[in-house]
Design a protein that fits this description.
This protein is of the alpha/beta class. It contains 13 helices and twelve strands. The protein has helices at 18-21, 24-34, 50-60, 110-124, 143-153, 169-175, 196-205, 227-235, 299-312, 318-324, 330-358, 386-395, 433-449, and strands at residues 71-72, 137-140, 157-163, 179-185, 209-213, 240-244, 275-280, 293-296, 371-375, 398-399, 401-402, 424-428. The strands form three sheets. A seven-stranded mixed beta sheet has the order 2-8-7-6-5-3-4, with helices on both faces. Strands 9-12-11 form a three-stranded antiparallel beta sheet. The chain has a two-stranded parallel ribbon with strand order 1-10. The protein is globular, with a radius of gyration of 22 Å.
Length: 455
């Protein structure tokens, strides 16, 4: 199979390239994402997206029948068990008050909103006159729900996002037509870092909104102060800055002392600065099944977010909101973040060390998150693109995510082989150590089968 991407010009038409036609896994991908119309009202391209598509292929290969025999290094979830030393005990049962039998307000219950505001004031607003109150917090049923609510209230204009980026942005950016998404590719040369001049160029372009994850999914890169403060100073009064901070607790840049990265530190006035922050219990509290998350921002934004929740998602489950309140005590959270960082950096170092020993070129260990953006460029032709590597890993009961999914491309204009993310996969070290060992053993077998295993 000839992969002549470097010698070709980028695709300008949605027709698949000849390289795709000779690859079974690429044809499967195209069929799922181009869709067909067996049902008159169904847009089939909405039915199989991102990590879900990878999970569906894994189910077809037997993952659903014996999940414990597999290593799922694809799904973006941290280990949710009780095996993190120093972490507080998660509830085994949840008391349900009489109030919790009722609908919760679509902006969330006031005590939880107050707890979130207090946490950010204690950790990120010390010594500042402007503080968050419950009116600056909207509780949402998951990160995607928060993003969709935000997208629903954005007015007409241009929205900039940086690639590679979180896969769910693709659907969010294509579902709403009031704004026009503009991709800005980041450079592999400097590890996909978001630089001040990139933001400055977007402001000169006239965009009204910038959306970014920070820390970054999938690359593990992070923008810290003072650079983050400079970017926010530049954006102030010019545009709305949406910061997805779900990996804020997975910060390995300052000795794992429990500090989190947040744009909240650099806001002058919580009601004047157009900064929206998204986070929740999902990642840094290791409770993805609870679907308790939040958006912080100016009161006017929060009021609108609460209102649109009534017709988008109905709000987060009342009992889980009540149960989340004691977890957000600021001193407890600091200790929890220290335990989290200490545990996950050990897993990061183990995974990076084994991958390097196999022969993968990893120049720098990720500074944050629990992901490795793994280059396949030096592998044999049969396994040096993300979709084919993913397929071969399935044969060894290992799940990874092809890099193509992080090339957020709502209009689907590029050939898969022309994507700058084509020669990558995202590998998660979120699972338990025994799962990581099993997954890396499987990757070793793939490399050995194709004569690519070093060491």
């Amino acid at each position: 199979m000839a992969l002549n991407g470097a010698a070709r010009k980028l695709s300008v038409a949605p027709q698949p390239h000849e390289d795709e036609l000779t690859s079974e896994i690429h044809r499967q991908f195209r069929l799922a994402h181009e869709g067909h119309q067996p049902h008159s009202a169904l847009d089939a391209t909405r039915a199989s997206t991102g990590v879900v598509w990878c999970s569906e292929r894994a189910y077809e290969a037997g993952f659903a029948d014996e999940p414990h025999a597999w290593a799922n290094l694809g799904q973006g979830a941290p280990e949710a068990g009780d095996g993190v030393p120093g972490s507080f005990d998660r509830p085994k049962t949840i008391p349900i008050s009489e109030d919790a039998r009722e609908y919760a307000p679509t902006a969330g219950i006031k005590p939880l909103r107050e707890a979130v505001a207090k946490l950010y004031n204690e950790h990120h607003r010390q010594g500042k006159d402007s503080k968050y109150t419950f009116e600056n917090v909207c509780i949402v049923p998951g990160g995607r729900a928060g993003l969709i609510r935000i997208a629903a209230i954005l007015g007409p204009g241009f929205l900039t996002y940086m690639t590679p980026e979180y896969t769910a942005y693709n659907e969010m950016l294509s579902a709403f037509k009031t704004f026009s998404p503009i991709p800005v590719p980041l450079s592999e040369v400097d590890n996909y870092h978001i630089h001040f001049d990139k933001i400055e160029a977007e402001i000169q372009r006239g965009v009204s909104t910038i959306l970014t994850s920070n820390p970054r999914n999938p690359t593990g890169e992070v923008v810290r102060n003072p650079e983050l403060a400079r970017i926010q100073d530049l954006c102030r009064g010019q545009l709305t800055f949406i910061c997805d901070e779900f990996y804020a607790g997975y910060n390995y840049t300052d000795g794992c002392v429990g500090n989190c990265i947040s744009a909240a530190e650099n806001i002058n006035d919580v009601n004047d600065d157009d900064v929206l922050i998204i986070d929740g219990l999902t990642k840094r509290f290791r409770l993805p099944g609870w679907r308790i998350c939040w958006v912080l921002g100016p009161k006017e934004f929060i009021k609108a977010l609460g209102s649109c929740g009534s017709y988008l998602d109905g709000g987060a489950a009342h009992p889980f909101q009540e149960a989340a309140i004691p977890m957000l005590e600021p001193t407890l959270v600091r200790k929890e973040m220290q335990a989290l960082q200490t545990h996950f950096i050990k897993k990061r170092d183990y995974v990076v060390g084994r991958l390097r020993k196999m022969g993968f070129d990893i120049k720098e260990a990720p500074q944050a998150t629990f992901y490795i953006w793994l280059s396949l460029k030096n592998l044999p032709e049969e396994i040096n693109d993300g979709l084919n590597f993913f397929e071969k890993c399935l044969h060894e009961k290992v799940i990874v995510v092809p890099g193509t999914f992080f090339d957020i491309n709502p209009s689907h204009r590029r050939s898969l082989f022309d994507s700058p993310c084509n020669r990558y996969v995202r590998l998660s070290y979120g699972p338990r150590m025994d799962v990581l060992e099993k997954g890396l053993d499987g990757i070793e077998r793939v490399l050995k089968k194709y004569g690519a295993l070093k060491g």
